[in-house]
Specification:
Elements (H helix, E strand, L loop, with lengths): L1 H13 L10 H28 L10 H11 L5 H13 L6 H30 L7
């Protein structure tokens, strides 16, 4: 699945964020941008999976609808954390000070990246070779 390949590729870059200096505003901005891209790849990969499975929720362009459906259909999917990611992604445009950005980066490093990695592992286990067909 092209969307899953993009998800994995971007995640490899984002996962290196913990090795970067969080004193650098440029690095902080880059981590936040990579998170936003990762989130997009994630919910769109889930949308593709739901579409493959015949879910009507996949017909919507709404990340919230896709996340809620994935949470309902797939027990491995942590819907609440993804809804938190969606909120943070939407709120990013209103982050005007460095402290708020650092708080978001801390959440990305401690919660969101591990969730992205977990979902990658679960999708590989759940879908296996079918990922190439999606």
């Amino acid at each position: 699945m092209k969307k899953f390949d993009n998800y994995v590729s971007n995640l490899r870059v984002l996962a290196r964020a913990e090795k970067e200096s969080l004193d650098n505003e440029f690095i902080i901005s880059g981590i936040i941008d990579k998170f936003s891209i990762q989130f997009e790849f994630g919910w769109k990969a889930l949308k593709k999976l739901l579409s493959y499975e015949g879910s009507r929720a996949a017909l919507t362009g709404s990340p919230r609808g896709v996340i809620k459906e994935a949470y309902t259909v797939h027990p491995f999917f942590g819907g609440n954390i993804w809804l938190n990611m969606l909120k943070d992604r939407n709120d990013m445009a209103r982050i005007y000070n460095g402290n708020a950005a650092k708080v978001l980066v801390k959440r990305i490093l401690e919660s969101y990246i591990p969730e992205f990695v977990r979902v990658e592992r679960e999708l590989l286990e759940y879908c296996g070779d079918r990922l190439e067909d999606l």
